[in-house]
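Write out the bound-state structure for flavin mononucleotide.
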Amino acid sequence: MKPYNIFKSCAFKFDPESVHDFSIQLFNKFPQFAYPIATKTDKRHQLNAGGMTWKNPIGLAAGFDKNARALNFLSNLGFGALEFGTVTPRPQKGNPRPRIKRFPEDSSLLNSMGFPNLGSKVILKNLKTTSSYNDSAIGANLGKNKDTTDSNAPSDYAFLYEQFAPHVDYLTINISSPNTPGLRALQSREGFLEIASEVSKKRESCLRPLYLKIAPELETKDLEDLVNIATQFKFSGIIATNTSIAHGRGKGGLSGEAIKEESKLARLKVLEVAKGPRDLSVIGAGGISCIEDVVDFWKAGGDFVQIYTSFIYKGPGILKEFSQGINDLLAQTGASTLQEWKDSL
Ligand SMILES: Cc1cc2nc3c(=O)[nH]c(=O)nc-3n(C[C@H](O)[C@H](O)[C@H](O)COP(=O)(O)O)c2cc1C
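---
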């Protein structure tokens, strides 16, 4: 049995969040533990998109390292980028536990966490102690506090942008998590317009690549509105997608293999709307678990990808699988770098 499967057979006997919290503590204390299981990045896998360069195209999606406590470990492991958060201005506890459920039969997770996090002040401090020798791109995923009213939401996002922008490579406006009441309603034209306009004032003094993370269930018309606003305010792109609420498995957002098809269709829709004259970059997330998923996404016009649930089920070896997949792709196509191959599509 592979070492990660041995770990999993033991860890999966416990509450998912307790195992997660324990692992984050270990990662925080011993970032060097990543080296024996790390995937060394091949220089040929470097990719540029949306105003950023990632050492390889595989990022870790938001929600795994909510408080930016394990960035060095995760970078050592070989991720091309790490998106910490969701961070809210003030600390908050999130919804009552248990709030993560595993579905091993189809390698999926259901979470109803509601942005538990230590708040911007502590997370900024964590970030400053970890970012100095890290060679992954670092992203900050921003959200509003649960008790912030809709009308005050734009100031939460603007405040967070101002706090984090000088210390990260990119930022993400998250208005698509299903576990903060009313948050997804901010994906309306009016809701997003106010946020984008408030945040753009802060971008005048510190311009960083900015992304919007969307839900997989958006109608084409709503998507067009969001993409138009993102283009108007010079966002770098869209992250598609967050977890899905289109399931019958209980409260919360579903992720992993169970949303692969839905998320993929949403990504294709986003690519159709966001590319062409608008030319926003699209980062793929949602059910991505193998190189074939990534190559399909690239052929459809996508750029970087992020994983979360497949990392839980497959472990750090998944980064080796992706790396090998890219090597095979280069060998088959004769391209000397991933960038060269992508540019030729
Ligand atoms: C336990 C858990 C917590 C998450 N927390 C966040 C979060 O705080 N902010 C966010 O934008 N996405 C969050 N996500 C969503 C992921 O970033 C990702 O968009 C989603 O899980 C789809 O990718 P996947 O199928 O590879 O997991 C969370 C996902 C899981 C499973």
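---
Residues 3-343 form a domain with the TIM Barrel fold (CATH 3.20.20.70).
Residues 61-63, 66, 85-86, 100, 109, 111, 113, 115, 141, 174, 177, 213, 242-243, 255-256, 259, 285-288, 307-310 surround flavin mononucleotide (CB under 6 Å).
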